[in-house]
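Recall that a protein's primary structure is simply its ordered list of amino acids. Everything else, from secondary elements to tertiary packing, is in principle encoded there. The following example makes that idea concrete.
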Amino acid sequence: MDLLRNILYLVIGISLGFSIYYSFKHRRESDPVRRSLSASKMNISLGTMLVSLSVFQFFWFTPSNTRIIIGLLFFLLGLFNLFSGLRSHTYFSKHPDMQSTKKGG
């Protein structure tokens, strides 16, 4: 049980770090396609962090109605962020501007 808790701490910390990194990268990027890719990666990181926080909250705290409602909201919001981030990352990584930069520019 302690191993799972440590893994969740690690996942929360890493996803928080990536969220901050991609947030700064998103704000500094001038190319709209790369900016959108950074935003989608930030959404994926935030979704991972929210899902991890909700799982952590369900397993290691005494259940109460408020805790269950907040945990479910975190879980649903995290799943939505993951889904929208993956969908937009798939779309923008196939964008023609990204294909031309991968090949030679």
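The chain has a mean pLDDT of 88. The two ends are 49 Å apart (CA to CA).
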